[in-house]
Amino acid sequence: MKDNLDLATSAQALADSAPAGSVSRAAASSVAITLATTRDTDTARTTLDGLAPEEVRREALALFDRLTSE
């Protein structure tokens, strides 16, 4: 399994390739920052649960789940 920093790097690459101002970019950036600043994936997941707005939270959690299952 990849560590948080590896996952953050993957999320940041997705954020960089998403259109500026898009929900996808906001979600991927949020996942990248959260993974880079938390000690483990459980803490990162819990932190993402508090993300707003709802549309960004849903997409961020879906991305997080996809990255952590690879």
TrEMBL record:
Q: Superkingdom of this entry's organism?
A: Bacteria
Q: What is this protein called?
A: Uncharacterized protein
